[in-house]
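Researcher: Structure for this, please.
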Amino acid sequence: MARSPGWVAPDLQVEQEDLDALDTRSPPMRRKSGRRGSLPAVMSHSVPWEHRRRSSPDVWMSARAASCSPHLEAGDRPVAGSQAPLVGRGTAGGVRGPVSPIMSPAIRRKRAQWLGTSADGDIDLDLETLRDYIKDDLTPLQNAENMLKHIVESGRLADIDEAVCRFVSNVLKHRGEASIPGWLRQSSDGGGAHKKHSLPGEVGEEVSEWLRTEFSPLPNKDATKGSFKGKVQGILFALRLKRTCVPPPPPLSENCAPSDFIPFEISAERAAVIHDVMDKVDDWDFDVFELRDASGGREVEVMGWTVFRRWGALDEFSVDEDVLKNFLKFVADGYSQNPYHNGTHAADILQTTNFMLKTAGVSQFLSTSECISILLSALVHDLGHDGLSNNFHKNSMSERALRFNDQSIQENYHAAHLLTSLCADKSINIFQNMPKKKLALHRSMLIEMLLLTDMSKHFSTVDDFRGVLETNGRDPEAWSNDTLKLIGYVLHACDISAQSKQEKCALKWCHMCHEEFFNQGDKEKELSLPVSPCCDRESTDINLSQVGFIRIIVLPTFQMLGQLLPVVNEHCVPCAEANLEYYQKLVQEQEEREGLDEK
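Model: Predicted structure, token format:
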């Protein structure tokens, strides 16, 4: 059944004769809250049907008139037994029922006057759904333009955008070519050829062309009238094109200035050394320990400055360079001098994530906001780590465990520590100029990704990703609704990537990690707590533990990621297999020595 709900503007004064023109014959049927066809909660079943219209005429008109068809001419009467269209989507939810397709001429005129359309114009919209999106001081065309820009620039479709798409489509359809926004219009140059304007943000000519043909009445011999479902699919397609229109950043040039990759004052000699190290920032065999030595222990700032600038974080955050420098200094200072969970680990995971985005090709599946978000999450994913596991905090009933109720204790702490610190200090707050909706999106992605670095969620994370991978395959378009699962899995893989790096780095990470484990074991013994696995320096077999870790955790994780990203199979998986073979050889040699000792 075709839907043609209209919209009564919030400031309309409805006369009693207009109310009488509505047919309220049929009682409503119950319907679940939030689904299509719902009315505001004030119209609940607790109010007798025969009293609702009289008890709340203003609310009644906003709800009932939104479902009335505007297509009947003045003087028409409802056809006996006719079935009315469904009411547009509501946010409060409650009930719905069949109503008459009549809207009085007075209401049609008043509605048309506010919308700037003819009285027969159809603006398919629910006032309650888009109340927060409509600005009273703007015309419908201006509201439509702002909504469309928001959808394209946000990089993802939310549930609310179904109503937004419908509104934008109908407003542009009824306004005519002269009222189409300039960035959607084809204007003639001096030679008579059509010059095409791209969308703000340089999202690409393909996106602009599609929006012109789908959301405007501009002549196009190949254009066909599509359904609303087709329009939504088209917007998804536009978003995917937008992602491919943002190329990965170019490599560092030989003649780049030190300020391009170093956020602090430094001598020319040291800058040259750092440049030589950072020249491999997009490679899997990048050595973060060389960066630590070259930068004098400021690897977090150098890596963060280089990566964030290259990926356009300053524009995404809308902050100046000083704020980003202050933020990077705050993050670097926020990492404790633990043997493993320290600033070097943070810089390493940030560089690994950069490799995944640029070299392995994850960026082709993501929007710019999602690329920046996973990079930010990689940088801060262990911020404030105290070198102790969640298991230790839980068993010792520490303040962190009590604060977060034993649920992903460290991961919740990292997220909370970051966000509370940013709110408390404007000089480091990279989110301070970000629009509220974009901020909410970044905050949501950040929290979700940090929580997925909890190792106790490893197998569920792998299972979830396996299911999505089997469904979507390698087609970037098929992943448009599952990008959060993708970036969460990628960040988790980067977090456990130490034993999939080249042997020299992998061995260093192995000893650093076990030193931290052993420090925890010593503390557990002091507190008479159960010693966690692999944390007893007297009994733990380091080589054997690495064999199990790589074989059960690391290798399967990267093998599955390699099914989506062939580069991972070419670079990461072979390194993990080589390291596994190395530790297996050491275990075998140790067993042979023990066998000789027994003889």
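Researcher: Any notable elements?
Model: The mean pLDDT is 75. The chain has 24 helices and four strands.
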